[in-house]
């Protein structure tokens, strides 16, 4: 009989309801047995047999193998440390921590505990990234000289009661959105030599950053990562140019929108982009010029949990390592320093993965 991992879900806000619960409910390798909700019992709709607890101490006294931490950024360190200390495997939402020192501390705690610690970098499991990974692995563009990725939204007004829009550590668009596209860039290209960042407030009411432009210097290759809240009409989400050709990609992986509508991640077509969202590949292969729609690979956030299961139960290598997520936080810190100095800074203090 296949081992089933008993899960404690910490928090039941949007991140838990949309990004985690649907996959934990549909993957047979996991069973959510306990949920931490401060005052409600909303999780009973999806997990009717789960026990509701009201605080972290009560959660860690339960018979569970793993916790999934979806609470605000300032809880990530104490909750992760407590769970590891209680002998639980830990999944924590991005961003990993607010400071790189805190990330290093949790990595050390995980090593000492012998338990698995991983950050939910679900944007490694989306259609566009997987397709770009295939194109770069096959070197269809030749040596890449420019890679540009966007994570734009249009939200001119403040979101009511949103802690991410308060002027507190770990809030703002840069902490919220950049971990996705920074992680993708580091996975594709490795560690940059230097970076330059422009992080600012564009909306009149903004109390914390709502726009960023981050340049990562790889020598020949230049990576440009941008995000903002005042982009009503988005351009290409990805633009990649190499010595031989280009790949231009509009549209967003369909999973998040479907999950927000209440869809469950089941069926063979889950994560499949519509053909109209396929990217344009314009390149030369063996002397022949090709200009065509390139079929998107199918994404599935749930494969993060499948990979994690294989690590915990079968001893497979961990796919999303905490050291990689530390690098993400370190890049964020260096970007804020670059923005303060208004000049490029070297990328120091990173794990070479």
Automatic annotation (TrEMBL):
GO MF: nucleotide binding; oxidoreductase activity
InterPro entries listed in its UniProt record: Gfo/Idh/MocA-like_OxRdtase_C, Gfo/Idh/MocA-like_OxRdtase_N, Gfo/Idh/MocA_oxidoreduct, NAD(P)-bd_dom_sf
Residues annotated as domain Gfo/Idh/MocA-like oxidoreductase C-terminal: 138-346
One Pfam family per UniProt: GFO_IDH_MocA
Swiss-Prot/TrEMBL keywords: Oxidoreductase
Domain Gfo/Idh/MocA-like oxidoreductase N-terminal: 5-120
Protein family per UniProt: Belongs to the Gfo/Idh/MocA family.
Protein's name in the database: Oxidoreductase
């Amino acid at each position: 009989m296949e081992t089933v991992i008993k899960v404690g879900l910490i928090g039941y806000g949007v991140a838990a309801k949309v990004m985690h619960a649907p996959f934990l409910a549909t993957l047979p390798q996991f069973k959510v047995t306990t949920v931490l909700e401060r005052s409600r019992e909303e999780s009973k709709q999806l997990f009717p047999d789960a026990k509701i607890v009201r605080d972290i101490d009560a959660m860690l006294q339960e018979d569970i193998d793993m916790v999934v931490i979806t609470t605000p950024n300032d809880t990530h360190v104490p909750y992760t440390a407590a769970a590891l200390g209680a002998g639980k495997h830990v999944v924590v939402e991005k961003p990993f921590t607010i400071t790189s020192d805190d990330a290093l501390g949790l990595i050390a705690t995980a090593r000492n505990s012998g338990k698995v610690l991983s950050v939910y970098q679900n944007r490694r499991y989306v259609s566009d990234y997987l397709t770009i990974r295939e194109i770069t692995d096959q070197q269809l563009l030749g040596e890449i000289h420019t890679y540009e990725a966007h994570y734009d939204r249009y939200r001119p007004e403040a979101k009511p009661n949103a802690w991410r829009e308060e002027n507190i550590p770990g809030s703002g668009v840069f902490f919220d959105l950049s971990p996705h596209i920074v992680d993708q860039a580091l996975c594709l290209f490795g560690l940059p030599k230097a970076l330059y960042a422009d992080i600012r407030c564009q909306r009149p009411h903004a109390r914390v950053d709502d726009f960023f432009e981050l340049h990562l210097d790889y020598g020949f290759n230049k990576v440009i990562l941008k995000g903002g809240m005042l982009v009503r009409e988005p351009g290409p989400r990805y633009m990649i140019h190499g010595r031989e050709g280009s790949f231009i990609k509009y549209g967003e992986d369909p999973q998040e929108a479907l999950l927000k509508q209440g869809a469950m991640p089941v069926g063979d077509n889950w994560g499949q982009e519509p053909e109209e969202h396929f990217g344009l590949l314009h390149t030369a292969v063996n002397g022949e010029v090709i200009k065509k729609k390139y079929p998107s690979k199918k994404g599935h956030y749930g494969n993060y949990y499948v990979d994690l299961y294989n690590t915990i139960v079968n001893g497979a290598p961990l796919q999303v390592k905490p050291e990689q997520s530390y690098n993400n936080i370190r890049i964020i810190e260096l970007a804020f320093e670059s923005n303060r100095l208004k000049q490029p800074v070297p990328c120091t203090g990173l794990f070479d993965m």
